[in-house]
Known about the structure:
Radius of gyration: 13 Å
Number of domains: 1
Number of helices: 2
Distance between the termini: 40 Å
InterPro entries: Acyl_CoA_acyltransferase, Gcn5-rel_NAT, GNAT_YJDJ
CATH topology: Aminopeptidase
CATH superfamily: Gcn5-related N-acetyltransferase (GNAT)
CATH architecture: 3-Layer(aba) Sandwich
Mean pLDDT: 95
Organism: Noviherbaspirillum autotrophicum
Strand content: 35-45%
Helix content: 25-40%
Keywords: Transferase
CATH class: Alpha Beta
Number of strands: 5
GO molecular function: transferase activity
Largest sheet: 5 strands, mixed
Pfam family, one: Acetyltransf_CG
Structural class: alpha+beta
Shape: globular
Strand order of the largest sheet: 1-2-3-4-5
Amino acid sequence: xxxxxxxxxxxxxxxxxxDAGQVVAFAEYRQEGGxxxxxxxxxxxxxxxxGYGSALAKQALGDIRAQHKKVIPLCEFIAGYIGKHPxxxxxxxxxx
Length: 96
């Protein structure tokens, strides 16, 4: 993994992780009030097992924090990442 960078693609409603000009992973979301529901994460097969999924989760959650939004982790990968990294647990939207 080189210098993978995150970009938000609101037209496709997803965060994209770009490395060497290529989208190597993405996390689809939908707006739900003041929160983002992360519904699906995917890493391209040729880039699997190289840490791109974790890099995507970390950077996307950091962006959500910077926007002062909450997250609804519907995607199992994102939910698991938050479970392993409790520093992001404050971002999880609780039931009202």
